[in-house]
Amino acid sequence: MSEKSTVTTDNNSACTDGCVKLPNPHLSTLDHDALFHIQVPLHDTDTLKDFSKIKFVCIGGTPGRMKLLAQKLARELNLTKCQDNSKEDNFDYAFTTERYSGFKVGPVFCVNHGIGQPSVAVVLHEVFKLLQAAGCSNVTLIRIGTCGGIGLEPGTTVITSGVLTAGFKEVYVTSALGRPLELPVKVDPELVREISSCASDNGNLDLKVKVGKTFCAEDFYQSQGRLDGSFCDYSKEDQICFLNKLQSSGVCNIEMESAAVLALAHKVQIRAAVICVVIVNRLKCDLPSLTAEEMSQIESYPLELVTRYIKRHFSKGD
Amino acid sequence: MSEKSTVTTDNNSACTDGCVKLPNPHLSTLDHDALFHIQVPLHDTDTLKDFSKIKFVCIGGTPGRMKLLAQKLARELNLTKCQDNSKEDNFDYAFTTERYSGFKVGPVFCVNHGIGQPSVAVVLHEVFKLLQAAGCSNVTLIRIGTCGGIGLEPGTTVITSGVLTAGFKEVYVTSALGRPLELPVKVDPELVREISSCASDNGNLDLKVKVGKTFCAEDFYQSQGRLDGSFCDYSKEDQICFLNKLQSSGVCNIEMESAAVLALAHKVQIRAAVICVVIVNRLKCDLPSLTAEEMSQIESYPLELVTRYIKRHFSKGD
């Protein structure tokens, strides 16, 4: 699995057996280490043993959606220990802090990441450290979320084939030691194909899936070309020009975390994908207008797709 | 960066009577408008009437801390309607979504903002729109939070006198229409002085307050010069050099939201301040090592300082 992740650059430590091996020489020299935000114990052997079998990490914005996914996976993967949804503690392991919540069901760990790249970066750093401490191997990271569509109607599920950020560059912009830092964003085309091929795995529901580029924005308003933020320095014509430029660049959707997810995963040689469902067609309007029921239904599509993919993976006996 | 996007000053609409008047000409022409993330109704006249008297918006990372602040303010401002802490509904108005929660007590609205500048930008855009819709005037925005200290010990409360971001520039870096956008970060020195002068308002607890610059980072690890992230591309010596450079630049603390808060507030002409308490002295170590009790105690200091400031404001009959 891991040899397929397209690691083309970098000072990353090579890891031929697929084990998670983080490119941070300092970790082995620390007097004390801990996961400050997620508070999963890094030195508890039982916990680490439990996590050692993790093959999938699923992340998404809200705790509720990730809990729903964990419950769905428990049912569909026949993880009997986790199947009693009436119980709050129906997971192998769960944590809840004021920032992040996580739910482990068998070989899958579902964690919420909040809004925006800094928020997802914090939790990914700590999840990656947990995976290494637990001795995990051949792990796949999948973000599920919602997005604005570019010419796509609500309910279409987009699998990201590439990411553009401000300046129309394929980089995640962050900083280190006070200096701007650009990390390459890499997509695993094979993983995209595998997930995409699950769209019709269940006869009852053919998911409408589109593979295309994602624009990753810094906020929900000006960065996404909306007119309805608290301030707006451009005209309706400027907006149309921006959205058309996205479309002509092959961009299918806009969200706020994909660049960080794919760049950070690439940096630590974990293969990763981003799956987001459209909640508004931005070529028609700025404000999503779905009812709560419609939103709930539509938000279930990426959960369904990722569940099919994970189910297929384990039915193959991988 | 395109010349169109370099908004460095202030096409803000002037508003001489202190009313919130947002610099977005499109808002008055929208067919339909709503606050997508906070879900406070924008067209309910009773709600807007209730919000029209807001004079302070307090924001902080977690819902729990903002609820604590709202309860404390209710007690100390003698807002009897809100004083029964045993009740869940002891606020004038409260909302809870999976993203953000808010608690209104009299003239103060306390809202959580999550982690990082994108997350705080989303909620601020919507809170500013609410303030305008409600016809609010002379509003002050205060962020409370935690931070790493530069040469300051845990428990010291830092009031931000200026913000540096990556590249050691005093700007909030975001984007608009696919182009990088730098917005100026402005501090109100008078507001900083007013808040600072409240440090000894209560004989029982002299708060240790420091006024100084803040470095606003993109993540908790490399952006803040830590060695204990999932990857690290620099040496211990590089780290020391970075932290020393911060100190010689007058930086007292590091956090993740100040630039966006002060730039966005300035953009809409709302005065704003940032108050963060130190939870680790970064010149000594990377990982905070406070007990849960110590953390809880220390996190109460910015709540205490902002409460004293708001209390003093209303005791003056402003």
The overall average pLDDT of chain A, rounded, is 92
Q: Report, as a whole number of angstroms, the end-to-end distance of chain A.
A: 10 Å
Tally of domains of chain A: 2
Spans of chain A with pLDDT under 50 lasting ≥5 residues?
1-14
Question: What is the gyration radius of chain A calculated from CA atoms?
Answer: 19 Å
Shape of chain A: globular
Question: Biggest interface between protein chains, with counts per chain?
Answer: A-B, 79 and 81 residues
Can you count the helices of chain A? 7
Domain Nucleoside phosphorylase (chains A, B): 55-285
InterPro entries (chains A, B): Nucleoside_phosphorylase_d, Nucleoside_phosphorylase_sf, Uridine_phosphorylase_euk
Family (chains A, B): Belongs to the PNP/UDP phosphorylase family.
Organism (chains A, B): Plakobranchus ocellatus
Structure description:
2 copies of one chain form a homodimer. By secondary structure, chain A is of the alpha/beta class. Chain A folds into 2 domains: 18-138, 3-Layer(aba) Sandwich (Rossmann fold); 146-290, 3-Layer(aba) Sandwich (Rossmann fold). Chain A is built from 7 helices and 11 strands. Chain A has helices spanning 45-51, 63-76, 117-133, 189-196, 236-248, 258-267, 292-315, and strands at residues 56-60, 93-96, 101-105, 108-112, 140-149, 157-164, 171-176, 179-184, 209-216, 251-255, 271-281. A 5-stranded mixed beta barrel of chain A has the order 5-10-9-6-11, surrounded by 4 helices. Chain A has a two-stranded antiparallel sheet with strand order 7-8. In chain A, strand 3 (101-105) and strand 4 (108-112) form a beta hairpin. In chain A, helix 2 crosses helix 7 (292-315) and helix 3 runs parallel beside helix 6 (258-267). Chains A, B: This is Uridine phosphorylase. Chains A, B: InterPro entries: Nucleoside_phosphorylase_d, Nucleoside_phosphorylase_sf, Uridine_phosphorylase_euk. Chains A, B: Belongs to the PNP/UDP phosphorylase family. Chains A, B: Phosphate binds at residues 99, 143-146.
